[in-house]
Fold:
Amino acid sequence: MKNAYVTARNPLVRYVVAATLARGADGGAAVGLVLLAVDPAVGREHGAQIGGLLAVGLTAPHLLGPWVARLLDRAPDGRLVLAASSLTFGLVLAATSWLLGRAPAPAVALLVAIAGACGPMLTGGLSSRLAGIASDERRAEGWDAVTYGIGGTAGPAVVAALAGVFTPLAAMPALAGAAVAAAAVTLTLPRECNPTATGEGGLPVRAVLRLLVACGPLRRVGVVTLLTALSLGALGSVIAVVFGSTLTSRPGAGAALAAAIGLGNLAGSLLVTAFPLRGEPETMTARFALLMSACLALCAIAPSYPSALIAFFLAGASNAPFFTATLAARSRYSPSEARAQVFVSMAATKVAMASAGTALAGAAIGLGPRPLLAAGAAITLTGASTAVLDRRLAATPRSA
Structure:
């Protein structure tokens, strides 16, 4: 009983629960909106197009992350901001699911955009508070990566399962409930002392964006993150589905490849949690990007479907330590007065690049999945190489 009591009081355990619930709701929302829009019971004309626009409306507001995150840096108690964001996300998502098919499309789109504006708090916003919760920050960053892995995999899976057994409308309250529950658990986390929170705290957004470019480690980690997101955004959503159908005629082959990425990411996250990364975050980010590039190259040359499953699993697994290293870099190199803004800004631009990768892959899929996989490997390699070259140039003394 004592061990269970201690575990229940462990703030990291509560953080993992809150983050998993919030990111599961965030990860499944776009899938749920699309399924709901195309549901004949909703009765909307051009349901697929409306669903696609709603999905874009949910992700596009992530670009507001630098402005939204300033609220977190200025707040005396960041838990209230995070909980309010999660609660708003859940309530608006529930309202959207009920109004879709009943209210005009622009009104529904506006609600979706409000939910999307809360999204950055469920991702980078929560991660920015981790340093004040865990004593072993490196191990905690591994657990944070696990919450992203579980949320990104379980959210869409729960939506698909509930939609299949019941209806898409039944899946949306589950996501909304997860977000509301995440808000409640977030309020139980330790209050982090924020000496810069005076109501006037935080840096202007322009200054934060300038910091991301001027600070060498943040700039280099940011470049690698963006280019890698461009590759991974295309991998699971478009390339995996098409590649599976070209390797075998079995139904669901492409979905299995996409699932292999998620399972690999989850397995890698658990491994990083068991064996926390040690070393300089900037250096680890570049090294793991090189590893990811090699795994993407293996995907491109996989001769058979079983070998492709293994290669896609390894690609997902390589993303886990890479992502954990980027979290460590944000934590180490961010100034305390703009910690949340740095976390959320990098997360927001990463989401935007992943969406761009999905769009580019969809437009270029006629070239075939293997050339696109090779291009993804080359783009990721370029990001890692650019970071290494930038660091060497910065370390080279300038002649008078």
